[in-house]
């Protein structure tokens, strides 16, 4: 039996975004591509960094406070344990570090926690990298005038990005898209990604119409529909 694909937004949101793209492109030669994804990266390397850092911290504490941990050892053995050699202590320290590493790594297999412990700058960088990858595959140099622009939304990170083709980037500074991005992020945080994307597309269309007004015979070269990943 075929599995049903889980949608990030409703059919009404799909139509809202599609209509916004069509309306925006009616006044410009620019081509707007919209993409929405659940998450841009698994952040497996973040789990490895956290596990390694905590394991190192645990081993460092044993090295810095050996008497405290020797007392704990004596308490656990009831005072009947033999005096540990330096090599045996080293083995215990390494074993403690390994257990800490495995424990933290297992806990961080839970994706929401792993995402929460990922620095904001890292998430922003991964979303940007994903947006650029998608732009290169589906938008870059796909129009005759190099007037394609990608609006990418990554829901779990609460991040979005706009990547423009050569002709647009030469005339429109990245900061110009700030108003569209602000409107989009506000709506995403309010749980309305579809409405946010539609509003951002409208504002992007206004910018494109100013710099690339509609010319006669300009074809619709890129899809208007919202793409889900």
TrEMBL record:
Name the record gives this protein: Putative membrane protein
Alphabetical keyword list: Membrane, Transmembrane, Transmembrane helix
TM helices/strands, residue ranges: 47-69, 89-110
Protein source organism: Sphingopyxis indica
């Amino acid at each position: 039996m075929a599995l049903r694909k889980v949608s990030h937004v409703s059919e009404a949101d799909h139509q809202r975004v599609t209509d916004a793209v069509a309306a925006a492109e009616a006044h410009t030669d620019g081509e707007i591509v919209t993409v929405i994804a659940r998450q841009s990266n698994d952040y497996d390397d973040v789990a490895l960094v956290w596990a390694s850092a905590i394991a190192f911290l645990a081993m460092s504490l044993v090295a810095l406070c050996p008497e405290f941990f020797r007392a704990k050892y004596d308490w656990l053995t009831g005072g009947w344990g033999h005096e540990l050699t330096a090599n045996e202590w080293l083995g215990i320290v390494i074993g403690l570090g390994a257990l800490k590493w495995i424990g933290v790594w297992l806990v961080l297999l839970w994706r929401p926690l792993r995402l929460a412990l990922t620095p904001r700058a890292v998430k922003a960088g991964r979303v940007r990298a994903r947006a650029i990858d998608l732009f290169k595959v589906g938008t870059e140099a796909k129009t005759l005038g190099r007037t394609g622009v990608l609006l990418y939304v990554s829901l779990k990170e609460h991040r979005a990005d706009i990547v423009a083709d050569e002709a647009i980037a030469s005339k429109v500074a990245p900061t110009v898209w700030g108003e569209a991005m602000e409107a989009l992020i506000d709506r995403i945080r309010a749980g309305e990604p579809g409405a946010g994307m539609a509003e951002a597309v409208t504002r992007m269309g206004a910018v494109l119409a100013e710099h690339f007004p509609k010319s006669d015979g300009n074809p619709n070269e890129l899809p208007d529909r919202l793409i889900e990943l």
